[in-house]
Amino acid sequence: MARLVTNATLRRIALGAFVVILATATHWPKLRIVGPVPRTDLWLHLGAFGTLGVLVASAGMVGRVGSRKNSIASWGLAIAYAALDESTQAIPGLGRTAGLDDFAANATGVTLGVLAVAGIVALARVRGWDRWLLDRTAAGRGDAGINGAASPERPPIAGQSAGG
Questions:
Q1: Are the C-beta atoms of 150 and 138 separated by less than 8 Å?
Q2: Which of 61, 75, 106, 134 could connect to 82 by a Cys-Cys bridge, CB 3.0–4.6 Å?
Q3: What residues contact residue 139 under an 8 Å CB cut-off, 6+ apart?
Q4: Tens-place pLDDT, residues 87-144
Q5: Number of Cβ atoms within 10 Å of the Cβ of 129
Q6: Pairwise CA distance, residues 154 & 162, whole Å
Q7: pTM tops 0.85
Q8: What are phi and psi of 15, to 5 degrees?
Q9: Is 144 helix (H, G, I), strand (E, B) or coil?
């Protein structure tokens, strides 16, 4: 019998692939970024590490996605990776430099990414859209929350029948 690959598994695979791509890009020897605005690299750091924040927070490795526990742990993990990534760019021979301004852009991106996930999940729960965030488990065993945990039944909203 085939094992179901859940959305949580796919999010973790995406996170792993992105970390490999990010580490490769940020450690590419003697890379120079020229763009339309001064310090284009800072905008790239913001976007790349914002994406990292989104992927780490949505992987749900430490609690339910969108929960305070998961958001704080995800932020800490991604910030630690950002610090490691930036500091290892000072390795002689890479022709790269480590800078506090780059780390600040990394940290800002991580923070915005983690906050975006928490905000979207909170809004989805308030609006009742969280059923779109649910993983379907194998063999029709029901719904599982966005990190694979069982999802409690919601009472009907006033004026609606229990069936929807």
A1: no
A2: 106
A3: none
A4: 998 888 888 888 999 999 999 999 999 999 999 988 888 887 766 655 443 333 333 4
A5: 12
A6: 9
A7: no
A8: -60, -50
A9: strand
